[in-house]
Design a protein that fits this description.
Distance between the termini: 84 Å
Strand order of the largest sheet: 1-2-3-4
Shape: flat
Order of helices and strands: HHEEEEH
Low-confidence stretches: none
Mean pLDDT: 76
Strand content: 35-45%
Largest sheet: 4 strands, antiparallel
Number of helices: 3
Number of domains: 1
Helix content: 25-40%
Structural class: alpha+beta
Number of strands: 4
Length: about 130
C-alpha cells in the first residue's frame, strides 16, 4: 500500500502544477487600451519532487512516510501589441551581470582613460 501513497502525493503535486501552468497563464488575457490591444506573454518554470520510505522493527511494527513539494515561477517575457496598422512584439530584456558589464565596458574604459589623463606625470597617447 505505500506505493499508492507516493502515487497520490505525486498526482496531487502534478495536478496543482498543471493548474498553474495552463496556456492562459503563458499567453495572458488581452487588454485593450484605446485602439491598441496588448497581450502579455510569460515564461513558466515548474519543478517538483516527492519521496517516501518504509520501515519496520523487530517487534513487527511498521511505518511509512512520504512527502512532496513543487513550485512554479511565472516570468513576464514580452507583450504582443496590436493596433489597426500592425502587430509587433515588445520583449522585456533582462540583463545578467555579464551583460551589464559588457554593456558598460566602453563607459568604464573612457572613465579610466580620462582619470589617468588627469594624473600628474601621465602622458596622453598620441593619435596617428
Amino acid at each position: 500500500m505505500p506505493e499508492n501513497n507516493v502515487v497520490l502525493v505525486l498526482q496531487a503535486i502534478v495536478g496543482e502544477l498543471r493548474a498553474i501552468a495552463r496556456s492562459e497563464t503563458i499567453v495572458g488575457a488581452p487588454v485593450t487600451v484605446g485602439e491598441r490591444t496588448v497581450v502579455p506573454i510569460s515564461k513558466i518554470t515548474v519543478g517538483f519532487g516527492a519521496g517516501g520510505g518504509e520501515g519496520s522493527r523487530s517487534d513487527k511494527s511498521a511505518g511509512f512516510g512520504g512527502g512532496g513539494g513543487g513550485g512554479a515561477v511565472i516570468d513576464p517575457t514580452a507583450f504582443l501589441v496590436m493596433d489597426k496598422d500592425r502587430v509587433h512584439l515588445l520583449t522585456i530584456r533582462r540583463q545578467g551581470a555579464v551583460d551589464a558589464i559588457l554593456e558598460a565596458a566602453p563607459d568604464i574604459l573612457e572613465t579610466i582613460k580620462n582619470w589617468s589623463a588627469k594624473k600628474p606625470g601621465s602622458e596622453q597617447p598620441k593619435s596617428p
